[in-house]
Amino acid sequence: MKTVGFAGTAKNTGKTTTALHVLQAGKEAGLRLALTSIGYDGENRDNVTGLPKPRYTLQPGMLVATGSTCLRSSTAIVRAIEETPIHTIFGQVVVGEVTYPGTVLLAGPNRSSDLQHVFDIFTSLGCNLALVDGALNRLVPMTCVDGLVLSTGAAFDQRISHVVEHAGALLRLLRMPVIRDEVPVNSGLWVEFKDQTSCVLGYGSLIGKNLLDTLLRTLIAPVKKIYIPGACDPHLLKLLIDQKADLLRGALMLFRSPLHLVASGDPLLWKEIFPLLEATDIQPSSLQTPQVFFMTVNPFYPRYLDRNGMYEAAYVDKRELLAAACNRISEIPVLDIFQPPFPDVISLINYFAELPDVTRSLC
Amino acid sequence: MKKVLLAPLDPVHDNAVKLLKRKLSEAGYDAIAMRPGTTSEEVIEKALEERPIAILVSRTLGYKVAETLGRLVDLAEASGLREMTRLGVGGMAITKETGGELGFDACFTGELNMTEVLAFLEGKPVGLQTAGNAVAERQKPNIVQGFTYAFKDKEIETLLDGIVDQILEWVKGKTSPGIERAKLRAEMLAEGISLRSPAKVSLTQQRLREQYLALCDDTIRAFYLTDKLPAGVRWLAAAEIEAMENLLGSAKARYSPLRHVGEKPLFFSQYGTGCPVMDVMHIKVAEAWGVDGVLHFDPSWGAQCEGLLEGYLSHEHDGTILTLENLKFIRHAQEPATLWNVRGHRGLNTPETQVLGHAAGADLFKINIPYGSTAGGTDPQRLTVDGVYSLRLAAEYGIPFDIPGNDELSGVPPFKTFAGILIMVALGLKLGAKPIPKPLLCYSPYMTIYGRMDDNMIDMNIAKLMVWREIVDAPVWPGEPVGFMTHSPERVQSSMMTAVHAALASSMGVDAVTIASSDEAYSKGPISAAARVDTLRAVRDALRFQGSVQLTPTPRALTLADEIHDGICEVLKTVAERGDFVASICEGLLGNEEDGLYPGRIGAGTVSGGRL
C-alpha cells in the first residue's frame, strides 16, 4: 500500500481539492482507495471564513477512517469494520467501507503513531492507496506517510514572490539528504565526540534557552555526530553554531525528520541557517523524510471585508502564480489542478514504483 | 502528584488558567500555570522539563488562533511529547471543529466543566460520547420526594376535609362516557388491542370497538368507521418518523442544568406544536439548553370531543393530538432523565388521557377541576366525576399530578384560585395521590384592574409563594408559565421578564418552574426553537447572577401574604358552608362572572348514575 499525505502551507491552499483530484484519478485507475485526515474536514463551509469548501464524496468500496460521531453526520453509508483504540474529539476512530455513496466528515488520527495504526488496518483490508488529508499547516503527523503532496498559494500570502520563495525554502528543507545511520533507539539528544566517547541528554529537542544551555555545557570536545530527534528551534541552532563552531566543524548533524524542523521554525528561517551550516562544514541530514511527489498552487484566497466583517472569494493572477512557482521550483512537478497541463497524478505519486525502505523504517 | 501544565497561549487573558489551577489543585493535581504571552516553544520547553500528563491550553483571542495552536500541537509531536502528554484546549476562540482540526485530544467549549476536564485527565474520552454517557447516567428527579403533605394551617385542613368528603360522597355511583372509555382503553392496552388493528378482528376487539365507539362523538366515530380524518389532521409519513429516528441517533445533547447552585428548582418547558415531529425537535432543543422536564399540551378541539384517535397524527392547530402512538414517539425521543408531564385536566377525555399517559411513560399528570371546568372548559359536574376518577388513576399509577392556577388569567384573585388548588391538593391526598400546587406568577387582570402591582411585581409574587409554605408542606411549582401577561412581542423583553420571574421563584426556594418561549404569547402559530432558547438562556444567566441569594419579604409582601391567606380561608368557609362543590363552581364561589369566570358547558348532561 502506498500512503500519500496532503499538506499545505496554510488553510485554504487547496489540500482537499488536490486530494479529491487524486482520489478521482485513483478510482479511474481501479485502485482500492482509503481516506483519512489528521484534522477535521468535511464541512460545507469554512468555519472561519464562512466560504464554501469542497467536500469528500466517497464511492462504494472505498475505505475510510474517521471519528464515530462523524460517521453519523455523513450522507455516505459506511459499514464499520474495525473500531480502533484511537480517541479523538469526534469519538473513537472507526475504519469502515463505504457501501452507499455520499459525503463523509473526516476526523481521523492526529498523531503519527496512530496514523500508522490506521495504515496497518488499511493494508490488512487490501487497500492500494491511502490518502491522508492534512490540517492547516501541520505536517509532523505526516512523518509516517510514503510521500507528500504540498499545496500552497495566495491563501498563504497574496505576494506571489513570497509564496514561491517560501515554497522553495520548504522544499529544500524537505529534500534534506537522507542517510542510514545507527542511533540509539528512543534516545534523547545524542552527541558522539571525535574521541569515540558519547553522551545522551535527557531530552530530544533543542527548544528553549535552558535546553540550549545544557547542550552548550555538554559540548566540550570536537563533535563527530550530533543527533536531534525532536524539535529544533532554528534560532537556538544558530546560537549553538555561533558559540561552538570550532567544536562542531565537520560534524554530521542528524535530524529524525525534516518535518520536525518545519514545525520548529519557518522554512525561510531555515533558509538562513543552511549557509551557516555550510560555512562551518556541518552536514545536515535526516534519518527519514517523506518523498515530495508534487506541489500544487492555488490562486484563491479569502478576502476580509471591513464593511461587513465577512469574507469573499478573491484570486491572484493564476497564470502568474503558476509560472512563478514553476520557475522557482524545478525539483518536482508544480501544477494548478484547474489549469493545463493536467498530468496523470497517479504517475506523479510513483504509485507503481518501488518504495525505498528507509521511508518506512522509523514510523 | 500528577502534573498538569496550564498554558494561556494568549497575550493577555489567563483567567481560565487561574481558575483551572485552583480547581485542579483542589482535585489533587499539581497544576503548573504559565503566564499570558507564553510562546509555544516555552510551553514545550516547560513540558519537557516537567513531563505533565496533560497540557491544557487556553485561548481567548481569535486572531491567528489556528496558526498559534497548530504550531504548538506540531511542536509537541516533534518533541515526542504526545506519546505521554495529552493536549486539551479551551477558550472563547475555540470550537470543537477548531480543536479537531488542530489535532488536540480534547476540546472544552462553553463554560468550564470540571467533570469533563477531570475525565480527560483520567484518560477517559471527552466530548460528544462522554456527554452522552453523562446524560444517560443522570437520575430522574423526584419533585414530591421529602414532602410530608402535613397541613400547617389546621383551620384550612379542617375546611378542606369537609369539602373533600362532600365531593367524594357526591361522585359515588356516578360515571361518564369519559370514565367508561378510560376503562375500555385500559382493557385494550391490557389485551394488546387497538381500535384500528388490521387483519382478523377478535370477538374481544369487536366488543371493545363497539362499546368505545358508542361513547364517541361523530368526528371520532367517522375516523374509525370510514377512515375520515378530522379537519386539519393528517397522518405522519413513515419517512418523517424514520428521519427523526436517524436524526436523534446522530447526536446527543449535552445536558447542563440551568441552575447555577443547588438541585432545585427543576425547569420545565411546554410543547404542543400540533406536530409530534416538531414537538420532538423542540424537546431536544429544550433538553440541550438545560430543561429538566417538558409538558405535553393537547389540542383544544380534542378536549371538546368525546373519544380519542389512534396512530401517528399531526394537525394544523394548537396542541398535539393525544394518541398512544404520538405519546410514545415523543417519550421515546426524550432523554431518560427528562420528566414528562401529560396534561389532561380540562377536557372530555381526562380519565383516558391518564391511561394513555401512563402507558406511554408519563411521570406527571395535570388535573385541576375548578380551573378545567370554567373559562370555556368542561361542565363542572362532568369534570368533577372525571377528575376524581383521574386522581384515583394517578394514585394507582403512583404518578404525581400538578394543579395549575391559570384561572387567574381570567381575572380571578389569587386567593380564590388558591382555594381551588387547595381543594385539589386535599382531594388528591385523600385518594392517595401526590399533588403539586402551581401558583401562577403573572400580571393578571386582577393585578392590573385593582393596581396590586402598580409599584412592583415582586411583593405580590413573593406573597403568593409564601402563603403556600404557610399552609402545607408540599412542593410548589410556579407556572404555567411564569411571567404570564408580562410578555410582549419583543423577544428580549419577553425573555427578560421570564428570567426575572424564574429567578424570583428560585430565590423563594420553589421546587419547579415552568418557563415560556419568548414568542409564546405572540407567535401567531407554533413557537420557534430560537425563541425557546431565548428564555432558557436568559434564565440561566439570571440564576448565575443571583446564585443562592434569597430575598427577604418586605412588610408589604408580608401584608399581601396575610391578605391572600385570609382570603383563602374565607373562600373555603363559603364553599364548605355551601356543602356542594359543583354548585360552588357554578355559583362562582371559586371565581365569578365579575372575575371573568364562567362555568364550562362542554359535556353538560353526560354524567349518569348516583344522585344528581
CATH class of the largest domain in chain B: Alpha Beta
CATH architecture label name of the largest domain in chain B: Alpha-Beta Barrel
Structural class of chain A: alpha/beta
Class of the largest domain in chain A in CATH? Alpha Beta
Main beta-sheet strand count, sense and barrel state of chain A: 9 strands, mixed
Give the CA-CA distance, first to last residue of chain B. 79 Å
Oligomer: heterodimer
Parts with pLDDT < 50 across at least 5 consecutive residues of chain A: 354-363
Arithmetic mean of pLDDT of chain A: 90
CATH H level of the largest domain in chain B: which superfamily? D-Lysine 5,6-aminomutase alpha subunit
Features:
heterodimer; A: 363 residues; alpha/beta; Rossmann fold; nine-stranded mixed sheet; 27% strand; B: 612 residues; TIM Barrel; 2 domains; seven-stranded parallel sheet; 16 strands; globular
Description:
The complex is a heterodimer of chains A (363) and B (612). Chain A folds into 2 domains: 2-175 and 290-361, Rossmann fold; 190-286. Chain A has 363 residues and is of the alpha/beta class. In chain A, the strands form 4 sheets. A 9-stranded mixed β-sheet of chain A has the order 5-6-4-2-8-1-9-15-18, sandwiched between helices. Chain A has a 5-stranded mixed β-sheet with strand order 11-10-12-13-14. Chain A has a two-stranded antiparallel ribbon with strand order 3-7. Chain A starts with a strand and ends with a helix. Chain A has helices spanning 15-28, 68-72, 112-124, 160-174, 209-218, 234-248, 258-264, 267-279, 318-328, 345-348, 358-361, and strands spanning 2-8, 33-37, 57-58, 63-67, 77-88, 91-100, 102-103, 129-133, 147-153, 190-193, 198-200, 223-228, 252-255, 283-286, 291-298, 300-305, 310-315, 334-335. Chain A contains 11 helices and 18 strands. Chain B has 612 residues and is an alpha/beta fold. Chain B has 2 domains: 3-137, Cobalamin-binding domain (Rossmann fold, 3-Layer(aba) Sandwich); 154-176 and 257-559, Alpha-Beta Barrel (TIM Barrel). Helix content of chain B is 47%, strand content 11%. Chain B contains 24 helices and 16 strands. Chain B has helices spanning 15-26, 40-50, 65-78, 96-102, 114-121, 128-137, 154-171, 177-191, 203-214, 218-226, 238-250, 276-288, 300-303, 324-333, 350-360, 369-372, 380-397, 414-430, 445-449, 458-471, 491-507, 529-546, 555-578, 581-586, and strands at 3-8, 30-33, 54-58, 86-90, 106-108, 233-235, 266-271, 293-296, 313-315, 339-343, 364-366, 401-404, 435-438, 440-442, 479-484, 512-515. A 7-stranded parallel β-sheet of chain B has the order 13-12-11-10-8-7-16. In chain B, strand 10, helix 15 (350-360) and strand 11 form a beta-alpha-beta unit. In chain B, helix 12 runs parallel beside helix 14, helix 12 packs parallel to helix 22 (529-546) and helix 18 (414-430) crosses helix 23 (555-578). Residues 128-136 of chain B have low confidence and may be disordered. At the A-B interface, helix 2, helix 5 and helix 7 of A face helix 2, helix 3 and helix 4 of B.
